[in-house]
Design goal:
The structure is a homodimer of 204-residue chains. The first copy, chain A, is mainly alpha-helical and 204 residues long. Chain A folds into 2 domains: 51 residues, Orthogonal Bundle (Arc Repressor Mutant, subunit A); 147 residues, Tetracycline Repressor, domain 2, CATH 1.10.357. Chain A contains 9 helices and no strands. The first copy, chain A, is elongated. Chains A and B meet through helix 6, helix 8 and helix 9 of A and helix 6, helix 8 and helix 9 of B. Chain A binds a DNA duplex (30 and 30 nucleotides) through helix 1 and helix 3.
Chain lengths: 204, 204
DNA sequence: AGGAAAAGTTGAACCAATTCTAAAATTGAG
DNA sequence: CTCAATTTTAGAATTGGTTCAACTTTTCCT
């Protein structure tokens, strides 16, 4: 294990991702030519296609890193949530939203979302769907946790509510990245307002 | 008015849309080459680009026809809704979903959605967003109507609830068109289940 | 009718992602 | 150290959407 070949492979992966991240942010997804990414990563075009099936997969790798970080941060909230249904949801969703532009620009998100709906069966499409599902599961886990604590009624349909909340948030996020001038605080406020009716319905 | 030039223009528009609709359904969006659409419509490639800014706009014109039909059909439900909140929502959403595959295949929907997030400022992107907003407004109108009738509490945040319901439905629809094997009845049932908690919260 | 201007049509050329190929370089095993 | 396997490389070929300068057709005016 960990021979020279392995290390070089990992290194090339990293260089490609780093180069792509930088160029995607600078020039946009379309504007970042494969040739330029290859040059910046100091590999040939052929090598890029040896590591990633297509340009979208490179973006996919970056998205996956970002979402996995977010999922990780979300664990903390699910483990010990605020003692109030509205705040608990707001905190978790806040983590998602506040972290969302760390690595990815809005334009990168738009491209990622577009590719995932365009090619749902591609490697990237399936990975993206899995990430969405993981986020849904985390919201469901939060609701289940709140039911255990006794903050949420035990007779409500937790999984359905979790999906409802995720779907609404996700759609709002899609609209958010579609408008460059849209701001995070407004997004959070709008979602909080929408969730209010759900919160009153499911709270004890 | 209605000179030769006008008639030819309308005729070419129609021929292009007809050709594109047929080829998109037969060969898929990507599979339908502009060259083939031009040949089938008996115009040149250049003429297509004179009528539509890009390939996506052709699809956009088809989507707009479909959504406008759906909006029209929805008017009936808003005008005289079923005397029960759950059924009212289910009926309106049912119209949206049942009509959705009349002209457009799932693959065409995927492409349309992808393009609208990819290029939100293009003619197509803006038109698509406007259609989404029109659907949201229709759901809000239904809720307002139900409030008038006294079936929905007057102290709830109607606009926020309408958007919540639309966003959830839309997201479910996106997932639906992403999976070719997904079936309409299951989609409707899942949405009904998610809406249940909202219905109980807003019903008098 | 005649002819100039406006409007529209045409297809060859361009561009960037992707694929393919054959040669060169690198690595690991014996 | 040497050879076979694997990987990288440069560059040519392919492909399909999009652009553009030259050519037609329609309109409109006298």
């Amino acid at each position: 294990m960990s021979g020279l070949r392995e290390r070089q492979k990992a290194d090339r992966h990293r260089r490609i991702i780093d180069a792509a991240t930088e160029l995607f942010r600078e020039a946009g997804y379309e504007g970042a030519k494969i040739e330029a990414i290859a040059a910046q990563a100091e590999v040939s075009i052929g090598t890029i296609y040896n590591y990633y099936q297509n340009k979208g997969d490179i973006l996919g790798a970056i998205v996956a890193m970002e979402v996995n970080e977010v999922l990780n941060a979300g664990q903390g909230v699910v483990g010990s949530p605020p003692a109030n249904v509205g705040d608990a949801l707001d905190t978790l969703i806040g983590i998602y939203i506040e972290h969302s532009l760390n690595y990815l620009s809005k334009e990168m998100w738009r491209q990622a979302m577009a590719i995932s709906t365009q090619l749902p069966d591609s490697a990237f499409g399936q990975a993206y769907t899995a990430l969405d599902r993981a986020l849904t599961e985390q919201i469901r886990a939060l609701i289940a946790r709140l039911q255990e604590i006794g903050l949420v009624r035990s007779d409500i349909d937790g999984p359905a509510v979790g999906e409802l909340i995720f779907n609404n948030m996700n759609m709002m996020f899609i609209e958010f990245v579609k408008r460059d001038e849209a701001k995070i605080p407004e997004l959070r406020a709008a979602i909080r307002r929408q969730n209010r009716v759900v919160v009153t319905a499911i709270g004890v």
